[in-house]
Amino acid sequence: MFRKRDKAEKQDARAVSELSLQELEAIVEERRRIERARAFAETDDTRRFAPITIRPDEKQKRRRRGWRDNLLFLVEVAAVLGLLGIIGAALLNLQALNQEVAAAVRGNQAPTVSEPITNVSAAPAQSPGELPGSSFPTQADGELPGSSFPPEALPASIGVTVQQAPALPPPTPGPQSPTRIVIPAIGVDWPIVPGDGWEQLKLGVGHHVGSVNPGERGNMILSGHNDVFGEVFKDLEALKNGDEVHVFTGGKLFNYVVRAKRIVSPNDLSVLQPSREAVVTLITCHPYRVDTQRLVVIAQLVP
Fold it and tell me: CA–CA separation, 126 vs 284, rounded Å?
């Protein structure tokens, strides 16, 4: 047995002695690479399974940061809830105010249905560049309400001085002027007042100055608010073709039937143009509580 091992060692010795210097260096480098890989694997296993230790001061910092984040989150939630509560309370108050206005107007309507309403104070009419029915009052300097862009001033180089025209007094209603509007499909029953300025629309549906009276050939223009002062035309969008619109002149009734409905910009004055047929044009703001456009409903007189 010893002879065989001596013989193998001699063969290995002869084999090593027969290797060149480059081959020996390659063998040594390979062994070093294997040893480095083995040492790295042992170190990685040690790190992987070693318990994670956190210093006491680091634990306190993390705990404090967690309490602070939770407190800030609760403050943000409380602020959002408070803001939602304020908005909800404001909307409820506005709704209650609109109901009070509607009740007051309807309470004063019964004894005056057969007589034209004349107790309308003088007020600036709606701007000629915008359709009536805006939920924003005309400003004191004559600018348009907030639902449209203000007009641009004339350049000074023209040399023309433009002065604002004085406010016209409200028209005196005649015996044929409309006094009441009833729309059964949406539960509207309101008085009609002459004029469609900001102050006039506080008292009811406004009859546009210069438009025809009920039953006459032409375009009778009536406008009202949708989200303030009783929300008279709040549900105007729900009207469909074929729904009836009743307009009274004193005790006389005129029936109109809805034929068209569309949404236009506040500056689209085409709906105010005269008509060859006897129609009534109902105008209000749109969308509800946004009021950047106008909702227009056109109804035709029927025998």
Answer: 13
